[in-house]
Design goal:
The protein is mostly helical and about 80 residues long. About 50% of the residues lie in helices and about 10% in strands. Strand 1 and strand 2 form a beta hairpin.
């Protein structure tokens, strides 16, 4: 089993143990696959520096920026 396979088998957001305590899964993703493509069809970015870069960068589209600034217009730390 490759490292990616073990991460994929670990990340199951529908598993009861994940719902009870997701933090060990997030820790492992940060360490082994910090920018992870989920078989469920989305990217997971798990390190603060990477998340900050994605949210601030024009390389990744403006949809998330528009959503966040519309939902939290007065928040000083959004973008």
């Amino acid at each position: 089993m490759s490292s990616a396979d073990s991460v994929d088998s670990l990340f199951d957001p529908f598993a009861p143990e994940f719902a009870q305590n997701p933090y060990p899964t997030y820790k492992r993703l940060r360490e082994e696959d910090p920018i992870h493509w989920s078989p469920l069809g989305f990217w997971m970015v798990t390190r603060f520096e990477d998340v900050s870069f994605v949210l601030k960068s024009n390389l990744f589209g403006q949809d998330i920026q528009h959503l966040l600034t519309r939902k939290y217009p007065d928040h000083p730390n959004i973008l």
